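Please, is this right?
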Amino acid sequence: MASTENAPLKQLYCASTADPVFSSTSKDFLPLLEDIRSPLVLILDPKTQRVGIIQGSNIHANPDSKDALPVQGILPPLYPEWLGDRGFLETHGLRFPYVGGEMALGISTPAMVIALAKAGMLGFLGTAGLTLDEVERQCREIQRVLDPEGLPWGVNLIHSPQELQQETALAELFIELGITRVSVSAFMNLTPTVVHYACKGLTRAPDGTIIRKNRIFAKISRPEMARHFIVPPPDNLLEALVAEDRLTREEAELATRLPICQDITVESDSGGHTDFRPMAPLFSAITELRDRSVSEHGFPYPIRLGLAGGLGTPQAVAAAFAMGAAYVLVGSVHQSAVESGLSEPARALLTEARIADMAATPAGDMLEVGAKVQVLKRGVFFASRAKLLGKLYQGYEGLDQIPAKDKANLEKKIFHASLDDVWKQTQAYLAEHDPKQLNLAKDSPRKQMALVFRWYLGKSSRWALDGDAQRRLDYQIWTGPAIGAFNDWVKGSFLAPLANRHVAQIGRNLMEGAAVITRTQQLRAAGFPMQPGAYRFRPRQLR
């Protein structure tokens, strides 16, 4: 048989009843571009050497008419469902590689999780700040709706170093309820709780394949944090869990062959607690770590990286997938959705936000260590008032040292009560919920000051949730710049009004738009000339 190894490729030609489009300003360009589910044929005009596009043409090895044009390439159909990792979709039973991130205090509500699941997306219930009973009630509410239909969903487990018993109790609850997807966040190191949940239920199939029952999504904002989740759990933690009868010997042995999790959410500049990391360097650094770990350990399954933070437009989502993200996670934008747990007045404030309308303020739960949260500053005074509290905390050793003028300002404009009254309220709360903190404050004026300041920093987020009209200027709304970009994008469209911002429509439009942007970039890379405005997708009702 003659070898065809060095045989030249034959030139292909195509002919179409429609005229080719050679410019992105042509009236026929947009319909061709947005019909992403149909293939596009790239042709070359021999006379002008311009690249054009035709849809649905007959392609032949030889020109069969004088109008036939040489083919430069063929772009296959492109679906939003295909932008991410197909294995991610298969593993979790999803239609889209799109995740609705967990948001504390139940801002990502059962209604939000259910709506995302029914749209073929994955939603995580936000549990931080909720009682164990509240978490159980909301989880059971979701289970009643989604489990009979076999639709996937998940729940959040946030690291609570000052409430480790609550953290452990939540993980035990998730195991008891049979919840198989948990997004863990704020973990600087692995804890027995995380290892227990990740490894519980590990088994072997008849063919020897290791099967996971529980799947962890680790939300990571630093490379040093990622290292703990892309390797097998430490032997000492596994041995301790076996000794406590929380894991079987087989589960512990199988755990040594797998990383803690297969899905890592790389979190860049986000709302709420954030390290303000830029997307590109962070994702690149963690990608390198992941690749080295997979190569070193030879895991039987891939470790997938998703991206979160700053994703409020189709361009941003397309960029995330272009970098190699297996999935995208959206948070800030969902806070303005109908299904959000935020009050309507707070959501209305979000619709007015621009990309520079955010500020970094002291975190209520980590005031003493100087942690920051990113919040909305437009339309409220919370950011400036929280910064003042942070400044006073850094400058004085106790409430008694604060100058009388500053103290009067605090009582009148921020607390709306005397500091003594606030301390009494704080004492009553801690006596019931956290006596240890109260004992620490007895001999520490600085600790007492921190607890008083945390009264305001903690309640301000509740005021936003409840829509407290008396405290509207003190709303603490965690959000990142993504909401500002989203508002610019949807201006004048059906998604601009608050009442139309349903998470399913938000997700579908971001994904559809990202696919169109991806198609636009494919055409540009193939030599098709793109003019300003070509990288634009307007929101529309999608099914």
Notes: The two ends are 53 Å apart (CA to CA). The chain has three domains: 13-77, 81-342, 356-476. The mean pLDDT is 93.
